[in-house]
Write a structure and sequence with these properties.
Blueprint lengths: L4 H8 L3 H14 L15 H17 L3 H18 L9 H64 L3 H9 L1
């Protein structure tokens, strides 16, 4: 049976955002909080006791959240070695669900890698095309400059000088 964030926050007399902060600190210290398929945290009764201990330890000893979380996690790890609680071990269906999600994630990553390779090839092709266009543009620009200089050279001659040469 899992407890939702709001319910556990009410039990601890704190806001849900504070409980999420506690969970983050505990996870950084190495404590594992179960997450549902959609990624939301779901707490067990054991988690409720752990968070109550965290809250009490911080209030009574004046420890920071991080140091209190480290103390609790180290205690839990030493207890965990001697006692294997059925509720905390993942069930066969949970393991199968995790394996399925893992396989889905791997296949999704493969698709991303394939798309990345295809996009890399497309970008290389586009760069080739742009280089070709730049070369053509440079050639056209050079021709334009040459034509402009020829036109400028012929415009220096006066039109009446052209007629006088014809009549001579």
């Amino acid at each position: 049976m899992f407890i939702k964030t709001k319910e556990l926050a009410d039990y601890l007399h704190i806001k849900p955002v504070t409980l999420r902060k506690y969970a983050e600190v505990m996870e950084k210290a190495g404590y594992i909080v179960y997450r549902s398929d959609n990624g939301r945290r779901e707490y067990s009764e054991n988690d409720a006791m752990v968070f109550k201990q965290l809250q009490t330890l911080c209030k009574r000893s004046g420890m920071t959240l991080e140091s209190a979380a480290n103390v609790i996690v180290s205690r839990k790890n030493s207890e965990y070695v001697s006692i294997a609680d059925e509720e905390e071990l993942p069930s066969k269906t949970e393991i199968e669900r995790y394996a399925k999600r893992y396989d889905e994630a791997i296949s999704f990553l493969k698709v991303l890698v394939e798309n990345n390779e295809r996009y890399t090839e497309e970008i290389a092709e586009l760069r080739k095309q742009m280089d070709q266009q730049n070369q053509l543009f440079s050639a056209v620009l050079q021709e334009f400059k040459e034509t402009k200089s020829l036109v400028a050279a012929t415009s220096d001659r006066k039109w009446w000088n052209f007629i006088r040469r014809k009549s001579n």
